[in-house]
Amino acid sequence: xxxxxxxxxxxxxxxxxxxxxxxxxxxxxxxxxxxxxxxxxxxxxxxxxxxxxxxxxxxxxxxxxxxxxxxxxxxxxxxxxxxxxxxxxxxxxxxxxxxxxxxxxxxxxxxxxxxxxxxxxxxxxxxxxxxxxxxxxxxxxxxxxxxxxxxxxxxxxxxxxxxxxxxxxxxxxxxxxxxxxxxxxxxxxxxxxxxxxxxxxxxxxxxxxxxxxxxxxxxxxxxxxxxxxxxxxxxxxxxxxxxxxxxxxxxxxxxxxxxxxxxxxxxxxxxxxxxxxxxxxxxxxxxxxxxxxxxxxxxxxxxxxxxxxxxxxxxxxxxxxxxxxxxxxxxxxxxxxxxxxxxxxxxxxxxxxxxxxxxxxxxxxxxxxxxxxxxxxxxxxxxxxxxxxxxxxxxxxxxxxxxxxxxxxxxxxxxxxxxxxxxxxxxxxxxxxxxxxxxxxxxxxxxxxxxxxxxxxxxxxxxxxxxxxxxxxxxxxxxxxxxxxxxxxxxxxxxxxxxxxxxxxxxxxxxxxxxxxxxxxxxxxxxxxxxxxxxxxxxxxxxxxxxxxxxxxxxxxxxxxxxxxxxxxxxxxxxxxxxxxxxxxxxxxxxxxxxxxxxxxxxxxxxxxxxxxxxxxxxxxxxxxxxxxxxxxxxxxxxxxxxxxxxxxxxxxxxxxxxxxxxxxxxxxxxxxxxxxxxxxxxxxxxxxxxxxxxxxxxxxxxxxxxxxxxxxxxxxxxxxxxxxxxxxxxxxxxxxxxxxxxxxxxxxxxxxxxxxxxxxxxxxxxxxxxxxxxxxxxxxxxxxxxxxxxxxxxxxxxxxxxxxxxxxxxxxxxxxxxxxxxxxxxxxxxxxxxxxxxxxxxxxxxxxxxxxxxxxxxxxxxxxxxxxxxxxxxxxxxxxxxxxxxxxxxxxxxxxxxxxxxxxxxxxxxxxxxxxxxxxxxxxxxxxxxxxxxxxxxxxxxxxxxxxxxxxxxxxxxxxxxxxxxxxxxxxxxxxxxxxxxxxxxxxxxxxxxxxxxxxxxxxxxxxxxxxxxxxxxxxxxxxxxxxxxxxxxxxxxxxxxxxxxxxxxxxxxxxxxxxxxxxxxxxxxxxxxxxxxxxxxxxxxxxxxxxxxxxxxxxxxxxxxxxxxxxxxxxxxxxxxxxxxxxxxxxxxxxxxxxxxxxxxxxxxxxxxxxxxxxxxxx
Length: 1165
Description:
Elements: E1 2-4, E2 15-17, E3 27-28, E4 41-44, H1 48-60, E5 64-69, H2 77-81, E6 84-87, H3 94-98, H4 101-110, E7 115-117, H5 127-135, E8 139-141, H6 145-152, H7 154-163, H8 179-189, E9 193-197, E10 207-209, H9 212-230, E11 235-239, E12 245-253, E13 259-271, E14 274-280, H10 287-304, E15 308-316, E16 322-328, E17 354-356, E18 358-365, E19 367-368, E20 374-375, E21 378-379, E22 382-384, E23 391-395, E24 403-404, E25 411-419, H11 422-435, E26 437-439, H12 445-453, H13 455-459, H14 466-469, H15 482-496, H16 527-545, E27 550-553, H17 558-563, H18 570-583, E28 589-594, H19 597-603, H20 609-619, E29 625-629, H21 642-654, E30 659-662, H22 669-681, E31 685-691, H23 706-718, E32 723-727, H24 735-748, E33 754-757, H25 765-775, E34 779-782, H26 796-803, H27 814-829, H28 847-850, H29 854-866, H30 873-886, H31 896-909, H32 914-919, H33 928-935, H34 949-954, H35 973-984, H36 990-998, H37 1000-1013, H38 1021-1026, E35 1033-1039, E36 1042-1054, E37 1059-1066, E38 1069-1076, H39 1078-1081, E39 1097-1099, E40 1104-1109, E41 1116-1117, ...
Parallel strand pairs: 4-5, 4-7, 5-6, 7-8, 27-28, 27-34, 28-29, 29-30, 30-31, 31-32, 32-33, 33-34
Antiparallel strand pairs: 1-2, 1-17, 3-8, 9-10, 9-11, 12-13, 12-15, 13-14, 14-18, 15-16, 18-25, 19-20, 21-24, 22-26, 23-25, 35-36, 36-37, 37-38, 39-46, 40-42, 40-45, 41-44, 42-43, 44-46
Helix pairs in contact: 5-6, 6-7, 11-12, 18-20, 18-27, 21-22, 21-36, 23-24, 24-25, 30-31, 35-36, 36-37
Binding site for Mn(2+): 558, 727, 757, 759
Pathway: Carbohydrate biosynthesis; gluconeogenesis
Function: Catalyzes a 2-step reaction, involving the ATP-dependent carboxylation of the covalently attached biotin in the first step and the transfer of the carboxyl group to pyruvate in the second.
């Protein structure tokens, strides 16, 4: 609201915005010192925003300024804004320092201070402080001590209002001295009632009580808050008015009896009885009511001889009846004058003051609205304000590096927006708040933005229950804060090393891969267009009709799973993706998802597997995508309810997946049929894959004979598979076996496409795939040359070259293969810490004996070297073969291969032979995976379970009959989504729900990691793994058109909290982050943190000090029972028990200082 103040006497003509104007103050001395003296030096006995505003006003008037500060405020901005600053309250608590009148007067006298401004809060409503100033011969900038006493004492102010004929809320005539008096009042006036601090305001010392059960606790909390905030815990009691509007009228009075009003403001939008948003003038206020409010305010001021600026506060009930609350005798108006004149002399006359426009003030605070506006504390890492036309800022400690402590008010800055009307002012305010960037502490800015967009706020009236009744205000859109989070990540890596486990000590290559040139425009048509147009059946027919051999490229999944421990990141896949789309459009498919890549993406790469699929789909629209689906296990290692598998396939198809290679580690038909049905129901191409083991060309090996595979294939074709696949996960297919198996399958199923997958561990992969192709296979799997061979797939270039010019010609350009390979040869160097060649220099034909799958072969080799068993890897492989025989000669692919590997390691670690294991099976403690396999957790192996070994191991343990997942109840996705939203906010997607369904713990850790460190998938791989070196400069593209320029500057020394400060330059501006040195902190003692997944561990909901511990060890507590009381920013919070149980341990005492989530106590259920 603009108030035009007419006149120019004394050169004072001011344009005022609600609550930000500058007014004349009286300066009161003792009676013997009434003579006029110019004010040359002013002290502000306060801190923060109000102190800064007084200093600014004084500076404009040429008056020297003095600040006082507590020991906890040495780094606060108000010290720097003053010409002089002095410490007060040495050794006192943070609040008590600003309440210590002797120290303040002493500083004033010693430094020739002419006048003291009390600000608001603290001593501003203490008559004894005003008197102490007068007694010391220092002017008190405010009303006389007598007026301060009358208006500061809420009970006496009520009596004066009654005398002046101003309506008041029923209340006590004097401060109460006992709980009994409150009970008596409640009996007389009934509930609800409200406790109020008798000698202070601002929402402190206020508690609403609705029944007798709440009375004692709220009385104690109100008393304690009032004592802490104002140095006096006296309370009075009033009848609580439900859903009133809170209207305040600004008044000005001089010592000649002149009083004017500056109209009203609506302060109804409150939390904890403290104003959040204020509007002037009050929207849709009845003119007659406005007249009554302003008249009563002026009359009351004249009744008491009020001098100075002040605020008269009222409640207005739903019937339009108003009630006096109090007079704030000192508000935040900050102009002083070298001499004081009457209001008319200054041109301040009532008939010349008119309302013109509208203004809104928002208090930006360090509070978390999603947690009940709990204060947040910490270090402001980034501060950037919103400014512009029609915006004014009055800040407190809003600057980069400021420490927000739990001891004082949570205000950061007051933002005032003005405009011609409320919607205009709200639009300006919203824009300004959007420009703010505050990092390091939580703020209420998202909440304020919701208020400003609320239709009731903009076009109707609001009352004090507005926040409580509009829960949509708490649907907060989280700030991204991506840049600062990434700096935290980079700093963490610089201090503590890689966040993903590194198997060997090797650094990423310093050479970046160069992407081959890609033509502009749309990529050429590929097989995906056929699939989209003809559907899965037409797609299968097109494959059979195709002339030549088709290839599936595994470089994007199985190749790096086999060679690089599945660590290749989306960042490097995306870079080469456009080249693949434009130059390999005639591929049958690109395997790029599923299998181990799903959980590894979250678990070790800290990126979303669904986002990988979405981004690759956008870059490669023309080539079909293929994934590995573990039958009834989807992409997990355990059993899931049937509906979870169906839902997973549905979401995968919606995100761009085309072909589902469905397999089961035991070729257990019921598990495979479920996966096939789920993939088919989702609209995907079903590729049923038979896992291959043994040797069909060896007549001595009859368990997995040719007849076994033909019978299995017949069942899968009858079940409706679109494509039939052979999955040779260990590379056991020899050329002769390939000819026999594929030839027989082609003869039996002439119309079904056949797809063959193998590994090149023995070095015969190319020969085997060529044999398959000549025998009738339509598709074979390959990897680009630099990612092929050893435990990966056969070389793409070799297959392309060997078939070129023949009837099997792939149609793939060999030159483009060379370009593609060159990119991956350099990119592979980035993953040097995970490259299998660090320990394994070649493949080995002994895979025909031990039958270890390609990816597992690599992992076992790594593990053997990390355990110091590198020279005993031969023994590990021998033990693997023996373990396989112990378990009945299994088909070995995840998860059955892991079971064999676990048993093999168990045998090696315990120096057990196969015979010893069989003999002592009933007394050994086997790995859990082995026990669960024998129970039937992953299905029934071909030929059944090995006996008597199984019975010896299981003894009386239960056995699962039939398909393991068939007996599981359906998964409740709505409940899961609800839980996820509660834990992580409303930004949860259907893809997130599926990730949590597959891997609950991994997803939880992934969300916590990205919440802390941001989108690390935007970083290049070298930065992700090793972090930057000092003086490194680099760019990070957050999204198209948004690029960060970062330079690493310096690494600080270890501080007493076990942290190091890491300095960066971000987009030309200095930034720093504090990083915990995990190695150093092992030698330091810190308060333990509450574990969120342990129900009985109760953590601090916010940083603060313990006021009271209400329980002791051994005490029985009920759910909801108060456990302790915390105080932060002069607000007290009761911590209630989350469960019923027995207190087993208490970790805090009264006066303990806590950080958020510090462990308070433990409860045993």
